[in-house]
Amino acid sequence: SEVGSGDVLVGLPTVPFRDEEVRVRLGPAYYAYLRVAEGCNHNCTFCAIPGFRGSFRSKGFDTIVEEARQLVARGAREINLIAEDTNQWGMDFGPDDERRLPELLRALSDIEDLKWIRLLYCYPSYFTEPLVEAIATLPKVVKYIDIPLQHASGPVLSRMQRPGPQHTENLLKKLRERIPELVLRTTFISGFPGETEQDHSATRAFARSLGFERGGAFAYSEEDGTPAAGFDDQIEPELRQRRREQLERGFQRRAEVWADRQVGRRLDILVDRMEGDVAIGRSYADAPDIDNVVKIPGAVVPFEPGMVVRCEIVEVDGLDLVGVVVE
Ligand code: SF4
């Protein structure tokens, strides 16, 4: 189909959910990904997802809780909630079912052997007061939010058809204020059509001022059928890459500073695997498969994957941390 500027192809709401067996078995048994919604109603001009995933619809409350129970029964100790826009979960239920993400997080928290619940892929809206409160106060919900922002310059965000920088800055400041020790992960796109040096600098400055502990950048690439692919001010691929590297270096520097600050701090570490007598785990600040690890040398029986142990961080090893067990 032909797609004009400002339009995006949206699939039928009946596009089925992806096969959960495939989705949830991606990781080792002690962490799992649980898809809570499918599709997206946003119209980001660079994104083809709504075209093939369909419009946004949430998985049912009881279905999710049951899937989580099964995952925990099979050994999962951490559940990573995923969707195109995870924090929008439940907003399509309407008045007949008023349960939203805070209620879901509470229900998941009641699963006895589940230790951590993590929110990945959040959209910079939908952080209602009850949701912020739930994240801040529920002990099993890790104080980590993954919120891909894509850019931070007003003109670019406007052409991307995404929320503006002031809205997002206010939101992130509020989240930091309300959730002590919050770790924020984001993702930026470099070299979106028409991006000027000033736009790029604005994104770097935004990242510095918000101090993301985790982050990544991708060079823009044209997706077939999206409005942005038809914009006539595409940026040279080399420049997209150069700007991506600059953004990545900024994230790297902030991650290093954050890691240094952890020395002396006590953190719960979820052990993912053993490498000889070194237990390899993660703190709340490390999402599986993408962030860093915490190494616990000299770990002997009864260490086993899936355990959570209290450690004091004694050293930094690159971006990884080294800890000793204190309890
Ligand atoms: S980038 Fe995310 S929010 Fe935007 S259209 Fe794609 S899936 Fe939806």
From TrEMBL:
Cross-referenced CDD domains: Radical_SAM
Superkingdom, natural source: Eukaryota
GO cellular component term, pick one: cytosol
GO molecular function, one term: metal ion binding
Radical SAM core domain residues: 26-260
NCBIfam families named in the record: MiaB/RimO family radical SAM methylthiotransferase
Keywords, ordered alphabetically: 4Fe-4S, Cytoplasm, Iron, Iron-sulfur, Metal-binding, S-adenosyl-L-methionine
Domain (TRAM): residue spans on this chain: 260-327
Statement: the UniProt record of this protein carries the keyword Cytoplasm: yes
Entry cofactors: [4Fe-4S] cluster
InterPro entries hit by this protein: Elp3/MiaA/NifB-like_rSAM, Methylthiotransferase, Methylthiotransferase_CS, NA-bd_OB-fold, Ribosomal_uS12_MeSTrfase_RimO, rSAM, rSAM_horseshoe, rSAM_sf
The protein's name: Radical SAM core domain-containing protein
Any one GO biological process: tRNA modification
